[in-house]
Amino acid sequence: MTPIKILALMLAAKQPTTFTLTQPFWWHRYRVHPANWLTEFVTAELLSITRAPELSLQRQTVKWLKQQLRQRQLKISGRKAELIQRLQGAMTATELAVQFPQHYYQLTSTGTQLVQQNQFVLWLHQYYVAGIVDFTAASRTQLPTDLDLAATLNWLLDAAAKQAVADWPQRYYLTHLRFQFAWQTQHKGTALNALLDCIRIKLAGLVQLAPLTEAALVWPTTTYKIEPFYTYMLQQIRQEYTLSVADIVAAFDQRSSVFVLPRQLFSAAEMQQLLRWTLTAQDQKIAQLYQQKQKALLM
Are 183 and 232 in contact (CB under 8 A)? Predict the structure, then answer.
């Protein structure tokens, strides 16, 4: 079965029978029309259609669940999953069938096995980036199917980076994606390293292809700077891991030996200073350094 069909199977599981595979992305992203696939899955015994009160309960609001529990003089405290379990235990099979007649698509044992063997399919869909994280890239780079989520994304980003060795705007984009994916998957160390690499590429002047001019270095409108978003994320990481400014600067310096740049607008020492001043909100000193760099261009 093709990865796209497996994706459709994954998305259909635990959906009510009113669910359809007619969303626009199927054609725009994957160039398929899967309207009849649900019938195919049921015929192939990958999906079954059954009544599933527990799924209907999951779709109810916490307010509704507490109202039902209160009517039965049961505890209303706890997480939603606990409320559902408590209410389901208090209702008879007949009550559940009458209250929740909705039927759902459920994976069969064969369908479950197929899904478990192809988790990467859902990940490529959820983290889709055309040409980088998609089924074509996975096939081209011979992506192993037994990797976990973080390793899958890193494999594809590494493969894309090999194709963009001298294309620094693309390298910057890939590094930003690495930060984004690492942050989303809770790999904060990797996220920090990627974030620092993004800053170094920015300050090196490698993101822009146009010739550098004096006007391009006007602070704070310049693009050759540490973006406010990066500053915010660094502060988030600092708070979460109780890191000092010195710790961040030291990590930034360490990355210079790992992530080598072909040229730099700001020297290594100037980059460290800009990072230190940014984290301590010393905008006046930052502006002065940019003015000095502007004067240097005129000489």
Answer: no
